[in-house]
Write a structure and sequence with these properties.
- The protein has about 270 residues and is α/β, with parallel strands linked by helices.
- It has a single domain, classed as NAD(P)-binding Rossmann-like Domain (Rossmann fold).
- Helix content is about 45%, strand content about 15%.
- The chain has helices at about 10-25, 35-45, 55-65, 95-115, 145-165, 185-195, 195-205, 210-225, 225-230, 245-255; strands at about 5, 25-30, 50, 70-75, 125-130, 170-175, 235.
- The chain has a seven-stranded parallel beta sheet, with helices on both faces.
- The longest helix has 22 residues, at about 95-115.
- The protein starts with a strand and ends in a 13-residue tail after the last helix.
C-alpha cells in the first residue's frame, strides 16, 4: 500500500492534512522535530512518525533513509520559519543563512532523496506539494530570508516539472492562515516586523484569516488534478478559482500561467 508522507507533520498544515487523509482511509507517514499531544493522537490512529530536524542535514538524511522504505503517492514538504524578522542590514547573517537552508535547501534535499520512492502507478502521477509565501508581486520588508526562499521554491517547482515528466510538482500559496508560524512576527514586535506586525494581528483575526480546512481542500483538489493543470504551478488558494472547469481549460492552454515571469516583458 502506498503512503502519503508529510515532512513536518507537526506543523498546523501537516496535522490538518494527516487527519483528513486518515479519515479517508489513506496510510499517513510523517516527520516531526518536537513531539506533541497532537502527534500522540495521530500515532494512536496509526500514523508512522519519524523524528527529523529539517534544519540539520544529518537528521534529514537519517529520516529519508528510513522513509525510503515507504512507497508514496503524495509527498508534502512543509518545514518553514519566518525568522529572522528584521531589516537585512541589521539581522544576524548567520541566522539569515540558516533560514535559507530550512526554508529552501532542506526542502530540495528532502525531495531529492525521496523521489526514488514515488509510486509511478498513482493516478495522474505522484505528487509533491510545497507551500509558498508572500513577496512574488511586491517587496515584503523584514522577511528577506523567508521571502527569497519561497520564491526559489516557486521556480524550483517549475524546474522539477520540466525535468521530471513522470511526476507532478505544485506549490500552494495559502494566504493568511492562523498557524504557529506567525508567532515569529508577534514575538518580534512592531520594531522588527514593521507594518507587518499590525497587519498580522488584523489578518489573523478569525473574520479575516483563511480556514485551514480550505488549505486541505486545495491540496486534495491538486491531488486529483491532471499534470497539465497543476504541475509546475504556483496556485493561490485565495485568488485563484481552483476547482473550476473553466480555469482548468485555461491552465491546459497556457503553460506560463501561475509561474514566475518578468512583468511587461514586451
Amino acid at each position: 500500500m502506498s503512503s502519503r508522507i508529510i515532512f513536518s507533520i507537526s506543523s498546523d498544515f501537516g496535522i490538518a492534512l494527516a487527519e483528513d487523509w486518515l479519515n479517508k482511509g489513506f496510510e499517513v507517514v510523517g516527520t516531526y522535530r518536537t513531539y506533541s499531544n497532537e502527534l500522540n493522537y495521530l500515532a494512536k490512529r496509526g500514523v508512522k512518525l519519524f523524528k527529523c530536524d529539517c534544519s540539520d542535514r544529518k537528521s534529514i538524511d537519517e529520516a529519508c533513509s528510513l522513509l525510503k522504505l515507504s512507497i508514496w503517492d503524495v509527498l508534502c514538504v512543509a518545514p518553514a520559519s519566518l525568522e529572522p524578522v528584521g531589516d537585512f542590514e541589521k539581522i544576524d547573517i548567520n541566522i539569515w543563512e540558516e533560514s535559507i537552508y530550512l526554508n529552501f535547501t532542506s526542502n530540495m534535499r528532502i525531495i531529492h532523496q525521496m523521489l526514488p520512492g514515488r509510486n509511478l502507478k498513482f493516478e495522474n502521477g505522484p505528487l509533491v506539494i510545497l507551500f509558498a509565501g508572500g513577496g512574488t508581486n511586491s517587496s515584503t520588508k523584514n522577511y528577506s530570508a523567508y521571502t527569497v526562499s519561497k520564491i526559489a521554491q516557486i521556480k524550483m517547482t517549475e524546474l522539477l516539472d520540466a525535468e521530471i515528466l513522470d511526476s507532478r510538482f505544485t506549490i500552494i500559496g495559502p494566504g493568511w492562515v492562523k498557524t504557529k508560524i506567525h508567532k515569529s512576527t508577534i514575538n518580534a514586535g512592531e520594531k522588527l516586523a514593521g507594518e507587518n506586525y499590525k497587519r498580522t494581528i488584523d489578518m489573523l483575526d478569525k473574520a479575516n484569516s483563511v480556514s485551514i480546512s480550505k488549505v486541505v481542500d486545495c491540496c486534495n483538489w491538486v491531488i486529483k488534478s491532471e499534470r497539465q493543470i497543476v504541475s509546475g504551478r504556483n496556485i493561490s488558494l485565495v485568488f485563484d478559482n481552483w476547482g473550476d472547469s473553466i480555469l482548468d481549460e485555461q491552465l491546459k492552454n497556457d503553460p506560463d500561467m501561475y509561474k514566475l515571469r518578468r512583468h511587461r516583458n514586451n
